[in-house]
């Protein structure tokens, strides 16, 4: 229990010490929502927000076992995908063997490269979902199920292997209530279990917020990908010069929303 308490307190310390920074993160998310004008883009970010909400409901209502090996594999795979995305972004401006093509074709190739890098980052962030979800499920199981059932171990042993007299019941955590612990065993146990539940709720709330941030980042990357796929939409009736200017502006918007998503990733890493 002491380890759980230390962990709970460390999580709460991280949250309270960075409360202003966390508030800024939520403000940035609100600003990102306000920047979106296209209805389809709003639907994308709303769908990811809904996914984060469903994950929160799932974490607080359904509990099942996760294996640490899978968490490790998800982390390694996500890191590999991010490394590939970084490599692709570095090669966006690589113009080797591209001197013979026109500027318009060159821009098209650059857009395709950026879109592929963004798609790889999206896949990496989806794997991050699985990592955090599995982590908090395992934590919830350890803190609630194991701790709660262990308190009733003497009762189970009396049923399985009964003795001439009932086994004494001991609390697995040390606390001084200045009352007879044997007489008020269930009252003290209820207090201890409530403490574990409240602590777990705090950890889950923190984890749910983190999942919400990651969900927002995924949505921003998805919107960047959507904008890249529709760079040339509604440009059939404009001149080549105007088309080139509009495409450049749209690319700037794509890079800007991609930059905001990456900055949010870095901000989350600083707070964690």
Automatic annotation (TrEMBL):
<keyword id="KW-0807">Transducer</keyword>
<keyword id="KW-0472">Membrane</keyword>
<keyword id="KW-1133">Transmembrane helix</keyword>
<dbReference type="GO" id="GO:0007165">
    <property type="term" value="P:signal transduction"/>
</dbReference>
<keyword id="KW-0675">Receptor</keyword>
<dbReference type="GO" id="GO:0004984">
    <property type="term" value="F:olfactory receptor activity"/>
</dbReference>
<dbReference type="Pfam" id="PF02949">
    <property type="entry name" value="7tm_6"/>
</dbReference>
<dbReference type="GO" id="GO:0005549">
    <property type="term" value="F:odorant binding"/>
</dbReference>
<keyword id="KW-0812">Transmembrane</keyword>
<dbReference type="GO" id="GO:0016020">
    <property type="term" value="C:membrane"/>
</dbReference>
<protein>
    <submittedName>
        <fullName>Uncharacterized protein LOC105426952</fullName>
    </submittedName>
</protein>
<feature type="transmembrane region" description="Helical">
    <location>
        <begin position="132"/>
        <end position="153"/>
    </location>
</feature>
<dbReference type="InterPro" id="IPR004117">
    <property type="entry name" value="7tm6_olfct_rcpt"/>
</dbReference>
<keyword id="KW-0552">Olfaction</keyword>
<feature type="transmembrane region" description="Helical">
    <location>
        <begin position="194"/>
        <end position="221"/>
    </location>
</feature>
<keyword id="KW-0716">Sensory transduction</keyword>
């Amino acid at each position: 229990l002491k380890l759980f308490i230390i962990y709970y307190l460390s999580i709460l310390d991280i949250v309270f010490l960075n409360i202003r920074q966390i508030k800024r993160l939520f403000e940035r998310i609100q600003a990102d929502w306000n920047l979106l004008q296209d209805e389809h883009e709003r639907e994308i970010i709303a769908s990811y927000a809904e996914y984060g909400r469903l994950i929160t409901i799932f974490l607080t209502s359904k509990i099942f076992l996760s294996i640490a090996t899978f968490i490790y594999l998800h982390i390694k795979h996500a890191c590999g995908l991010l490394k590939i995305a970084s490599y692709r972004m570095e090669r966006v401006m690589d113009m080797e063997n591209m001197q013979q093509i026109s500027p318009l074709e060159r821009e098209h190739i650059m857009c395709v490269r950026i879109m592929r890098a963004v798609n790889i980052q999206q896949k990496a962030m989806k794997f991050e979902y699985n990592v955090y979800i599995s982590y908090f499920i395992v934590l919830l199981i350890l803190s609630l199920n194991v701790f709660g059932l262990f308190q009733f171990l003497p009762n189970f042993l009396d049923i399985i292997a009964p003795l001439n007299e009932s086994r004494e019941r001991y609390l697995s955590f040390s606390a001084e209530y200045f009352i007879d612990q044997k007489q008020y065993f269930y009252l003290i146990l209820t207090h201890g279990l409530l403490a574990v539940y409240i602590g777990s709720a705090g950890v889950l709330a923190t984890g749910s917020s983190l999942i919400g941030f990651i969900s927002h980042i995924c949505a921003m990357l998805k919107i960047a990908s959507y904008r890249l796929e529709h760079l040339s939409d509604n440009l059939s009736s404009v001149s080549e010069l105007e088309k080139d200017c509009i495409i450049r502006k749209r690319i700037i918007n794509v890079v800007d929303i991609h930059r905001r998503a990456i900055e949010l990733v870095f901000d989350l890493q600083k707070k964690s």
